[in-house]
Amino acid sequence: MMDHPLILLLLLPAVGAFILALLPSGRPGLIRNTAIGVAAVTLAYAVSLTQQIDFSNPAIQLATSVVWNPKLGTSFSLGVDGLAFPMVLLTTVLVLMALLASHMITHHVKGYYLLMLLLEAATMGVFMAQDWGLFYVFWELVLIPLFFLIDRWGGKNRQTAALNFVLYTMGGSIFMLLALLVLFDATPAHSFTFAAMAEGARQLSTAEQVLIFSGLLIGFGVKMPLFPLHGWLPLAHVEAPSPVSILLSGILLKMGSYGLLRAIDILPAAAQAMQGLLFTLGVIGLLYGGLLAWRQSDMKKMIAYSSVSHMGVVLIGISTLNVIGMTGAVYQMVAHGLVAGATFMLIGLLYERTHTRDINDYGSLIRVTPRFAFLIILAFVGGVGLPSTAGFVAELHVLIGGFEAWGWSIVLLSLGVLITATYSIRTVKQLYTGPMRLDMQQVEDMRPLEMVAAGSLIAGTLLLGFYPTPCSR
Question: Is 375 in contact with 452 (CB distance < 8 Å)?
């Protein structure tokens, strides 16, 4: 197994989920600590793999492949490169932090932690797969634990939110599957591997590539989510338990942009032909998401729509089709994962204490929750992308790459940043200034473990802001 490190990495959370299934349901503390321990070991092992990866080499590394079904042309093929491995690391970090912030889960504890570990395994599988058939299997597997996590532990409209999420995503997946089957039919090697499908795509005309790329764009666009395929997002974020919202916004949205980058790699002619459409959709998402976030008084909805806006930045970076812009897109994926994870965690923890997400119910909380104030302000600073944060590095790359591709049209990115700054400053002002409300005087400040979880994500944002080399070389 040590000769196949990615298989071991994939198995760690899956085996952890199996161990949880054997533990007695009447021991919630043991179940929680075991799940956190498994997630910590998974993160530690993922970090240790950085010693075996040459990030200056664009080739697939730590590869392992076993033919799965020769008649169907599928294989259990895993590998990582400079695009996939940061996403794997981000997944392991966010899952651990989400589990640390899951102390509010008090019913069906075993099922909750078991599903969270299965979700981690399926998500890492998406990023490590080097076979489109295997990629699709993991892509669909992600839906199962997410559906139950929202449906069983969500808010009062959880059933509607869970059903919306699954129907939207499965609807997009149908287009993705059809596009992959058409591409497979054109592949002489009769194989679903990334390399074979890319070779097959080179034989196609631009019109055929555009048709296939359009199907993939719909499938990946639902998960990103692109306008107008974002209808599932606000309700899912609002109704999901806060730790699940951390993973939804922090890593699940990145599956869509990751898949889109892989699609561009195998269908470059289609990407060139649809470059203008990608840029237009990115700008619409950036401005539309930002304006809707500005209009929200529900803080969870605000962060949900801000995710649409930030993923618009990612799409603008992808649309440049140049190295600088696409580097900025990948960096923004990591930066937003950390910032969104921290923001959802902090707002969720605040909601557990106050039982309200309406921003108008707060005021002058800095007197009673100074630790909350410090970390929430830093989280919103990271969201705006001020200098010294990872978001700044990402947006600067997108700005430079965008100017090279689109000229002065890229000034629209600056407008999006201004909108983000507006609702971020408004939120901080409403939470921590003004008159103190009587019912807010007894709010408990952050506990040490919560400080560690949220502080780690914010520290990652600042570290990548000061030292961007790990994600930009």
Answer: no
